[in-house]
Design a protein that fits this description.
Length: 306
């Protein structure tokens, strides 16, 4: 493996597909409220010219940098902190640090480097994003400790990823709003639910090593019911967002795909048959986020005549 591929494997870079589309949703939601010298950007430059404004394109690039570096820091720190447990778990012993592909020190330097780049990138966005960058880093890094003392660790992970839509919105507007917060809550419940499903694979290991998770605390069948409830809450938030935002009908096509993929992963995973957990985790959720984001953004283009 090349050095770059080792680090990409360390942080499971392909899993960026979960939160990144929601960051783009937050970004495009903010465009109608962007301004130049206090004037609405779309009114000043025209719809398409406003969307392609260099200021917006620069902020879009900075949002992308923030998303990648924050997630890299969080994932690498998780691998660094859990390296001793990973070495004991047959499912995770092949990960980069316990397998000797990367040293623990290299992973920690990677965490520090990505954290620094993340904070610097927020400095160039706006003051609010810079000040909140330290809070965001705390949340995404703190998650790695939570399994040691609470079964609610899945919700903390959800909170970390939920920063994507509201963070992107703040990058453009510098202010909070209800609609991106609704998408953030949808992400909290969605991510928490599928993380519970993923944690089903390690119930026995977690119980024997005093690690906390909802499956370890409640058992597989009850944990799946909790995941279902969380996904119902996620679908509810997406429904409310659609109605509250007055979206073009294309939004609800994406909504149908999103909800369908939530249902699909529960159809694939059973308490006594976890053979399709990875299919439910990666494929269903990847399709859900990407396709939903495409339709939401398309709906915004139709809605505002960009």
């Amino acid at each position: 493996m090349t050095t770059v591929s080792k680090y990409l494997s360390l942080v499971k870079f392909s899993h960026t597909i979960f939160a990144m589309p929601f960051a783009f949703i937050g970004f495009f939601l903010a465009i109608p409220y962007a301004s130049v010298s206090g004037n609405n950007l779309l009114e000043v430059q025209g719809t398409m010219a406003g969307v392609l404004n260099p200021m917006l394109l620069q902020k879009g690039l900075l949002v992308l940098v923030c998303m990648v570096t924050a997630r890299n820091a969080a994932m690498a720190f998780n691998r660094y902190l859990d390296r001793h447990f990973d070495a004991l778990n047959p499912r995770t012993a092949i990960r980069e640090i316990p397998a000797g592909i990367l040293s623990a020190e290299s992973a920690l330097r990677f965490v520090i480097g990505n954290s620094i780049v993340f904070v610097i990138a927020t400095w160039f966005i706006n003051p609010l994003c810079f000040y909140l960058s330290f809070v965001a880093l705390f949340v995404v890094l703190f998650y790695s400790y939570t399994k040691r003392f609470t079964a609610l660790c899945h919700l903390v992970l959800g909170v970390g990823l939920s920063l994507a839509p509201i963070g992107a919105y703040l990058a453009v507007t510098g202010s909070f709003a209800v609609l991106p917060l609704l998408f953030s809550f949808a992400v909290i419940f969605w991510v928490s639910g599928f993380d519970i499903i993923y944690a089903l694979q390690d119930v026995e290991f977690d119980q024997s090593h005093q690690l906390n998770s909802i499956p370890a605390a409640l058992g597989k069948e009850r944990a799946l019911w909790v995941a279902r409830l969380l996904h119902v809450c996620s679908a509810t938030c997406v429904t409310i967002a659609g109605v509250y935002g007055g979206f073009h009908w294309l939004y609800f096509v994406g909504y149908g795909v999103f909800v369908g993929m939530l249902i699909n992963q529960h159809r694939l995973v059973k308490p006594h048959d976890l053979s399709k957990v990875n299919l439910a985790f990666m494929t269903s959720n990847g399709i859900a986020s990407v396709v939903f984001a495409i339709f939401v953004i398309a709906a915004l283009f139709m809605q505002y005549g960009w």
